[in-house]
Amino acid sequence: MTRLSAGCSDSGEVTSAMRAPCEGPLRISDVTRTLGDMHIVLAANPQAEQPWVTDAVADLVRQTGASVMVVAVDELESEYLSPMPRSVYTERAEHAAEVAVRRLAEAGIEASRTVLPGRAAEQIIRFASDQKADLIVLGSSVRPVVAQRLLGSVPLTLIEKAGRPVLVVTRPVNG
Question: Where's the UspA domain (predicted)?
Answer without folding.
Answer: 39-169
